[in-house]
Design goal:
single chain, about 220 residues, alpha/beta, eight-stranded parallel sheet, 9 helices, globular, binds pyridoxal-5'-phosphate
C-alpha cells in the first residue's frame, strides 16, 4: 500500500473525536509531502533538530508535534513554531518551555507524560510527581504554557490485557484531573496509542493517536 492509501485507511477507521498524529520521524520530506497531499496536517517527530529541518522546508500550515523526550537545552530551537509537546516529564522542562514561549510572545500547549508501562526505560511521571507539579504554587505562575492533556506509552508486549490495563489507568488519572481546571491546566487531550496498540487505546478512551510505521512503513 502507498502512504496515501495507508493514511486514508487509518483515518477512515478512526472515530471523529480521535486526532491522528502522523509520526514521520526518520522519514524523508517526500514521504511527508505524500501524506500532506492526501490531506494530513499534523506530524510528529521525536528529535528537535530533525523537526526543525523539516519545518523549514515544508508548508507552514503543518502542525508539528514533538513526541519524543525533550532535552531542556534544545527547547529554544522549536519554541517559535511547535504546536504541541507530548513528552513533558519534569517541572524544570516545563519552566524552560514557558521561558522560551514567552520570548516568542506565545503560548505553547503541552501534555504531561505519565509513566504507565511496566518498563523502566520509558520516560514519564508517576502519579505523585504529576500531582506535585500541578499543585505547586509555581505552576500557576507559568503564563506561557497550557497543559492540555496527558500522554502515555504502554509496555511493548503482545499481552493485550496488560496494554488495556495500562491505558485504562491513564484514562482514570485523566478523568480525575479533568475537573481540576485552572488557567494553565485544561485537560482535553489523551494521547495514547501507536501502530501496534492504537485500537486498544481508542477502546480505552484515547483522543489522539501517534501512528508512524502503519502509515510510512517500518523504520530501520
Ligand atoms: C515512534 C513513536 C510513535 C510511533 O510508533 P509506530 O509504532 O511507528 O506507530 C509513537 N509515539 C512515540 C512517542 C514514538 O516515539
Amino acid at each position: 500500500m502507498s502512504i496515501k492509501e495507508s493514511l486514508l485507511k487509518i483515518k477512515e477507521e478512526l472515530p471523529d473525536i480521535v486526532t491522528l498524529v502522523a509520526v514521520s520521524k526518520t522519514k524523508p520530506i517526500s514521504d511527508i509531502e505524500e501524506a500532506y497531499n492526501a490531506g494530513q496536517r499534523i506530524f510528529g517527530e521525536n528529535k528537535i533538530q530533525e523537526m526543525v529541518q523539516k519545518w523549514e522546508i515544508l508548508p507552514k500550515d503543518i502542525e508539528w508535534h514533538m513526541i519524543g523526550h525533550v532535552q531542556t537545552n534544545k527547547v529554544k530551537y522549536m519554541a517559535s513554531f511547535v504546536s504541541l509537546i507530548h513528552g513533558v516529564d519534569s517541572f524544570k522542562l516545563l519552566k524552560e518551555i514557558n521561558k522560551q514561549a514567552k520570548k516568542h510572545s506565545r503560548n505553547i500547549n503541552c501534555l504531561l507524560q505519565v509513566h504507565i508501562a511496566d518498563e523502566t526505560t520509558k520516560f514519564g511521571l508517576n502519579t505523585s510527581e504529576l500531582d506535585k507539579i500541578i499543585n505547586s504554587d509555581e505552576f500557576n505562575t507559568l503564563e506561557n504554557i497550557t497543559i492540555v492533556g496527558l500522554m502515555g506509552m504502554a509496555t511493548f508486549t503482545p499481552n493485550k490485557e496488560q496494554i488495556k490495563k495500562e491505558f485504562n489507568f491513564l484514562k482514570f488519572i485523566f478523568n480525575e484531573l479533568k475537573n481540576n481546571t485552572s488557567n494553565n491546566l485544561q485537560l482535553q487531550i489523551l494521547s495514547m496509542g501507536m501502530s501496534g496498540d492504537y485500537k486498544t487505546a481508542i477502546e480505552e478512551g484515547s483522543t489522539m493517536v501517534r501512528i508512524g510505521s502503519s502509515i510510512f512503513g517500518s523504520r530501520n
